[in-house]
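Notebook, student rotation project (T.W.).
Task set for the rotation: take a protein with a known small-molecule partner, predict the structure of the complex, and write up what can be learned from the model alone. Partner molecule chosen: magnesium ion. Sequence and SMILES entered below by T.W., checked by me.
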Amino acid sequence: MMIGIVGKPSCGKSSFFKALTNMDVKIASYPFTTLEPNKGVAFVKAKCPHTELGKKCDPNNSDCIDGIRLIPVKILDVAGLVPGAHLGRGRGNKFLDDLRQADALIHIVDMSGKTDENGLPTDNHDPLEDIKWLREEIELWVKGIIEKVWAKSDDSIIIKQLTGFTPKNETIAQCIKDAGIDLRKLAHLVCERTKPMLIAANKMDLPEAPKNFERITKISKDKIVPCSAELEIVLNLASSKGLAKYENGEILIYDNANDQQRNVLEKVREFIESYGSTGVEKCVENVVFSLLNFIEVYPVENENNWTDSKGRILPDVYLVPLGTTVKEFASMVHTHLAKNFISAVDARRKMRVKEDYVLKKGDVIKIIAGK
Ligand SMILES: Nc1nc2c(ncn2[C@@H]2O[C@H](COP(=O)(O)OP(=O)(O)OP(=O)(O)O)[C@@H](O)[C@H]2O)c(=O)[nH]1
Ligand SMILES: [Mg+2]
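Predicted structure of the complex:
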């Protein structure tokens, strides 16, 4: 699973990336601070089934803290996009190619209106404009990719041209069918179906932002999550320095914080009281579990102990699209399992299931395959 972070220069992409991944990347108020993409890992949370088993798990591809499984999601932070990027404006469209593999995009929008479409300081810029042109820019990039082979008018060539956009060729085939001879519409459908986008209304800590947010959420049909990457960074830093603790939606400020630190942390507290959180993690949770509708599933080899061949309890967790069958899941775990698939066992109910069994959130599954 990979999520791409997009947006105009200086909207806060790298700040958002740093807040999520705790990686120390370059952040500055001038445009095109980021040139080479930053790659990192964030985590989405789910209740770990080991709590039902009464035995501690041995995570391999993830982590588990206090009964909560932390499931890794790759995050990609790229250079800022400007209007005309698909024609090579700004830093060109070379980095757009890095977004090919993304399962979804988070569009970071500077909700304060204090930067223009090129990321330069201004007043009263309308963030709604950014939401519109950025989507268009991404679609025109995809249109440019298809255009190179469009004259050949062969579906299989177009599908090949869009390799990496989605693991499912059928998705592209359906887009081609639905778009007919309309190339622009095809680009739109490919984006809509392979690059769903969540809007992160960033810089909500600035006084100008809430008014824009209220206006835009009323008229936009996008999923928009209010957030402040900056305050999330402050909170992470304060936690790592032992100045504060964030737990169950509450901030506990310790006595060793000085007055200045206390003031900033009070600002974070106020923000969290208004919006429920800093919104950064919520964006990723929303993408994975709502926008993409993925569920987490645990493959095991022993249906009684929920262990793998090495005796590790619930070692791995996979994020799969809702609607995935157990046979499809087998192919995600190992091609051998899919090729020699016999049946599977729902390890929670200790019941055999057939290949067309549709997986549920939190399923623990043993796949039975021939040699
Ligand atoms: N007040 C406030 N400022 C923010 C927030 N997020 C980012 N900023 C500031 O916005 C400026 C740009 O932040 P970056 O994270 O470098 O933005 P970017 O989108 O990665 O920019 P480029 O790499 O140049 O495209 C910096 O001065 C940040 O401190 C936020 O949530 N609130
Ligand atoms: Mg950046």
